[in-house]
Amino acid sequence: MAGYESSSSSQVSSLSSKYKNDYYQLLHDFEELHSEANNVMNNRLKGLNNWLENRVSQLESEIVDLKTDFEHLEMFYSNSVDCSEKQLAIKSYENCTILKSQVKYLLKTCEKFTRGKANLEVVLAYQNCVFGKDGLGYYP
Question: How many angstroms separate the Cα of 18 from the Cα of each of 5, 12, 24, 28, 101?
Fold first, then answer.
């Protein structure tokens, strides 16, 4: 019996060492895969970050340009235009919006008339020419 116990304990120790080696190999492979995934994700995020930084710088330069344009307009109105001319400019802007809405309305109306004309031409094209109109009360 003593021989049986020693052989089983040696088998258990060999199995446990085998599983330990497999565990360490899996752990090593996992760490490599994890580091590789982090590198890929970091590269992707760096590219996105660079694009966003470029976009932010473009927008900042656009804001600076718009501010300077606004300041020039503000200076123009404050220096060369008195209050009545400012009000006239505002009224002309309001008039422009009214005129734009009227143009839209006229375009829609014109479109309706052109569609109606096309439909009328189709109906008139389908009419038949009748020569025997004697019984209808038609007198040539």
Answer: 20, 10, 10, 15, 84
Only one residue has tokens 């590789």, namely 36
Tell me the average pLDDT across 103-122: 89
Cα–Cα distance measured from residue 75 to residue 69, given in angstroms and rounded to the nearest whole number: 10
Structure tokens at 125: 């094209």
- Categorize the per-residue pLDDT at 41 as very low, low, confident or very high, splitting at 50, 70 and 90: confident
Query: What would the 3-class secondary structure string for the chain be?
Result: CHHHHHHHHHHHHHHHHHHHHHHHHHHHHHHHHHHHHHHHHHHHHHHHHHHHHHHHHHHHHHHHHHHHHHHHHHHHHHHHCCHHHHHHHHHHHHHHHHHHHHHHHHHHHHHHHHHHHHHHHHHHHCCCCCCCCHHHCCCC
